[in-house]
Write a structure and sequence with these properties.
Elements: H1 2-19, H2 21-24, H3 33-48, H4 50-59, E1 63-69, H5 70-73, H6 76-85, E2 89-91, E3 96-98, E4 112-114, H7 122-131, H8 145-156, H9 161-178, E5 181-188, H10 193-201, H11 208-217, H12 224-242, E6 256-264, H13 269-285, E7 289-295, H14 301-305, H15 307-320, E8 325-330, H16 346-352, E9 358-361, H17 371-381, E10 384-387, H18 389-396, H19 405-410, E11 415-417, H20 422-425, H21 429-440, H22 444-456, H23 482-490, H24 492-509
Helix pairs in contact: 3-4, 3-24, 4-21, 9-12, 10-13, 11-13, 13-15, 23-24
The protein binds zinc ion.
Length: about 500
């Protein structure tokens, strides 16, 4: 048994290093004593169990969390506090927050309670925490984990980004800092009321050029100024709360943040097209938005019906805005959730038509047509898969031997761990590292490679540290050579990678 496990780990490690060419060619393979000692400390922690593993992995430098929906990352306790502060009401039957407009009656009206009541009524507080998350959830007839997961978003959405996005950024970056993360690529949907209204009044025609011209002519970009303003205000509020730039700066200040524009895929074609166009325009104009992603349940009626059409929209817009990065939720499906035909092509089309540089989830890969060939193609194209283990378990019921993580590793497809919705799932990135180590027998070097991948495949601008010779062979630290310094000042990505190497070295030397 032990031999078997060891061999399996060796195969996985060989595959990951063999294929992630960006790392293998330039990485100074320092099999030095600190690295060896750290790998041994990891194995010792593994033998001691999940608590020891957690303590080890909490401190391990993890690079980035690349698959993180901002609203799903906020914990239920924060929603309650913010709803109470804003004077919002709760619909008692559905445990949903109501916006102020719906809750203007004194005392909130019949069947409603002030959210602030939760602060002095523990049962009400507990019920809201459960309603806003997966805590205490047990599936029952007609209501699965998938349903509970996606229903939570509607229950807390009355707390608005205009009021609280700065609080959310403070919360997620503070949590990331504690876990030795340094970069977050947060998915968010800024208000798009104007684009939505335009799409409603426009007759859909599958002529993308004509649709784009009409949308732009009728003022599609009118939402952009407000969206840019929203980010500016939220980032300023986060900075204020964390006292960034002062002697008392919180650790969260060191966590870099960029955004991915979320398109809501479960909508009619005209609206999806309008919002996708708005996302490409916004990401072209404002460097804080580094790319776009499609969200909402992939198994929904419109998401399934229009999947290929939506990939062709991306193909069309990618050619007009080639610098805007694309990551796509694809293959967040499982047998039984949709008919077998629905499992056959989403990842492939995301890569081959939608220009996805990264795939979110990719759970159903082995049910796609010609999966071996697809895996080889993903490895050859360096399409990274964002792995969300807890999310896949609670939404899809996919875990352990049913999860394709070891298959991606075996085929040399780059992977990194991410949280998806850490607030709804009530987890953090460390939890996902522990889970990966336990469920798949991953060793230290594989986890370390995943942390490196999270920055290599991030959408930070600039050349990768591993793609040039500039810093090769240098001990990461404060005194890089002139050519290395030049790379680090020209490339935000390389600078972040260099910082990760510095943190890894410090972590390993402490063992
Ligand atoms: Zn997601």
């Amino acid at each position: 048994m032990q031999v078997h496990v060891f061999l399996r780990r060796a195969v996985v490690a060989a595959a990951i290093f063999g294929a992630a060419q960006v790392s293998a060619q330039a990485m100074p393979l320092r099999a030095d004593t600190a690295t060896t000692r750290t790998a041994q400390a990891f194995e010792t922690a593994r033998q001691q169990g999940p608590l020891a593993l957690h303590a080890f992995l909490a401190e391990m430098p993890k690079g980035a969390d690349l698959h993180n929906h901002l609203s799903g990352a906020v914990y239920a306790e924060s929603w309650i506090a913010q709803a109470a502060a804003d004077g919002l009401c709760v619909d008692v039957a559905t445990l949903s927050l109501l916006d102020k407009h719906d809750a203007s009656a004194p005392g909130c009206g019949n069947g409603r309670r002030p959210a602030a009541d939760a602060l002095s009524d523990q049962h009400f507080y507990d019920a809201l925490v459960d309603a806003f998350s997966m805590r205490s959830f047990v599936p029952f007839a007609g209501h699965s984990g998938h349903d509970q997961f996606f229903d939570t978003f509607g229950r807390f959405q009355a707390v608005t980004p205009q009021q609280h996005m700065g609080d959310w950024l403070d919360e997620v970056s503070a949590r990331a800092a504690v876990q030795n993360e340094q970069y977050l690529e947060l998915m968010a949907t800024p208000p798009f009321a104007h684009a939505r209204e335009l799409a409603r009044t426009l007759d859909w025609q599958p002529d993308f050029d004509a649709m784009r011209k009409q949308l732009l002519a009728r003022g599609l970009k009118d939402d952009m100024a407000a969206d840019e303003q929203l980010l500016t205000q939220a980032l300023a509020e986060r900075k204020r709360r964390q006292r960034c730039g002062t002697a008392q700066a919180d650790a969260g200040c060191a966590v870099q943040i960029r955004f991915l524009y979320q398109v809501l895929r479960g909508a009619p074609p005209a609206r999806v097209f309008a919002q996708t166009l708005l996302g490409f325009e916004l990401a072209s104009a404002d460097p804080r938005w580094v790319g776009i992603n499609f969200v909402m349940p992939e198994d929904g009626y419109l998401s399934m019906r229009d999947y290929s059409l939506q990939m062709h929209m991306l193909d069309y817009l990618h050619h007009l805005y080639p610098k805007v990065h694309v990551s796509l939720h694809a293959g967040e499906l499982a047998p039984g959730l949709v008919p077998p035909d629905g499992l056959r092509f989403h990842i492939r089309e995301a890569v081959e038509i939608g220009h996805a540089e990264r795939i979110g989830h990719g759970v159903d890969v082995m049910y796609e047509d010609h999966p071996e060939q697809l895996l080889q193609e993903m490895a050859a194209r360096h399409v990274m898969v964002e792995i969300n283990l807890t999310s896949n378990d609670v939404i899809l019921g996919v875990r352990g031997a049913d999860h394709p993580l070891p298959i991606y590793l075996k085929h040399g497809v780059p992977v990194a761990l991410s949280t998806d919705d850490e607030g709804v799932s009530r987890i953090d990135l460390t939890h996902e590292y522990v889970r990966a180590a336990e469920d798949f027998d991953l060793d230290y070097s594989t986890l370390k490679q995943m942390a490196r991948n999270s920055l290599t495949y991030s959408f930070l601008p600039g050349e990768s540290l591993w793609a040039t010779q500039a810093c090769q062979g240098q001990p990461p630290g404060n005194h890089p050579s002139a050519s290395c310094r030049q790379l680090l000042s020209a490339s935000e990505k390389a600078a972040a990678q260099w910082e990760l190497e510095r943190r890894l070295r410090a972590f390993e030397e402490a063992h």
